[in-house]
Amino acid sequence: MKSMRTRFLPKMTHGEVCEYIERNDIIYVPLGTCEVHGTFPLDVENTAPEAFALLMAEKTDGLVLGSLPYFFCGASPISPGTIQMSVADGLSYLKAIAHSLLNQGFRRQVYLSLHGPAFLTGGALAVDFFDETKCPISYVDMVNGCEYAMEKGVKFDFDDVFYGAYEILDRKNELVVDPTLDTSEKTSSETAIDETDVFRRFAHPSGSIGFYFARPEDHAGMTGALKSTQERDEKCAAGAQVMRQIVDAMDMPLYVEKMRELDAQHRDVILPRYAKILPRNRYPAPDYRK
After folding, report:
1. Rounded to an integer, what distance in angstroms lies between the CA atom of residue 129 and that of residue 137?
2. At 187, phi and psi to the nearest 5?
3. At 46, which helix (H) or strand (E)?
4. H/E element, 255
5. Which DSSP category does 216 fall into?
6. Which among 109, 118, 137, 288 counts the fewest CB atoms within 10 Å?
7. Residue 228's pLDDT is what?
8. CA 181 – CA 167 distance, rounded (Å)
9. How far is CA 143 from CA 107, 119, 203, 256, in A?
10. CB neighbours (10 Å) of residue 167?
11. pTM score, two decimals?
């Protein structure tokens, strides 16, 4: 695999992108949030998917389009630090990005998150965009990805992933280190939806009913801040190793190859059979046979 100065698209030069597009068409687009999350920085759920995206890009010779932290948060607007975006507004913004990336030559686009409600945006993007363009971009919910890795024998908890992301992206200094802070985890919740399984029986909680947290600590407890730089460095190093094991378990080279196979089947089999009755493209597209 060709060595690259950086795999983050905004950090590349025009010439570097042109050279890349000549050989490949994969880009990972991590979706984030800016919201209360214990005593982690507010953008921890943007940092983690960016780190996963980088590891995936390194495995598959892909690029990363990062710095997309403002999407639907869900129940956390009770914090003054939370930026809330509607699902519809986030979807519209992402769809414009997806169309641009396709025009630029990125036919295999993988959108990913590590935030429960993100499936409302990412899933809608994948299916709507396909109807419009007949290009099968995908959405990866890293909550599912982490659970899949657990089934494969990788042992960790989600805080390991959050710490590891700061190691992988070389941003450990953004984590709070304060020996005077109370860093004990708060496990009880005052939020009504946490007191019953009635709603989550039949749908993901974030897509089943509208609700807000009763207290900031009801989202992710009070974990994140650390007592010393030694503790921070140890947790970050261990978490980075866990993240690499998760990505190994997910087998992203197989994933992106299956994306190519799916695209080929639509081009060579399904479109010739059903083009007259399938949803019409919203935008002109190249000849599918090319």
Report:
1. 8
2. -105, -20
3. helix 44-60
4. helix 252-265
5. G
6. 288
7. 96
8. 22
9. 25, 10, 15, 19
10. 21
11. 0.95
Radius of gyration of the chain (CA): 20
Whether the Cβ atoms of residue 52 and residue 27 lie closer than 8 Å to each other: no
CB atoms within 10 A of CB 119: 18
Please provide the DSSP assignment of 169-209 as one string: TT-GGGS-B-TTS--PPP-----GGGG--TTTTTS-GGGTS
User: How open is the CA angle 45-51-53, to the nearest 5 degrees?
Assistant: 105
Q: In 3-state terms, what secondary structure has residue 30?
A: strand
pLDDT at residue 290 in the model: 42
Tracing tokens 């089947």 back to the chain, one arrives at 265
Return the CATH fold of 9-197+204-249.
Rossmann fold (3.40.50)
Query: Using CA atoms in the order 105, 254, 248, 59, what is the torsion angle rounded to 10 degrees?
Result: -30
- Name the strands in the sheet holding 63-64, side by side, starting at the edge strand that comes first in the sequence: 63-64, 26-30, 108-113, 138-141
Q: Note the pLDDT tens digit of each residue in 176-230.
A: 999 988 767 667 889 988 888 899 899 988 899 999 999 998 887 778 999 999 9
- What pLDDT, on the 0 to 100 scale, is given for residue 288? 45
Residues of the chain with pLDDT under 50: 288-290
Cβ neighbour number for residue 84 with a 10 Å cutoff: 16
Question: Of 183, 40, 57, 35, whose CA–CA distance to 117 is shortest?
Answer: 35
pLDDT in the model for residue 289:
43
Structural domain boundaries of the chain?
9-197+204-249
Which residue carries 């971009």 as its tokens?
Answer: 137
> For the chain, what's the residue count?
290
CB 53 within 8 A of CB 112: yes
Instruction: Give the pLDDT confidence score for residue 282 in this predicted structure.
Output: 67
Only one residue has tokens 């749908």, namely 203
Burial, 12: exposed, middle or buried (Cβ in 10 Å; 0-12, 13-18, 19+)? middle
CA distance 45 to 123: 18
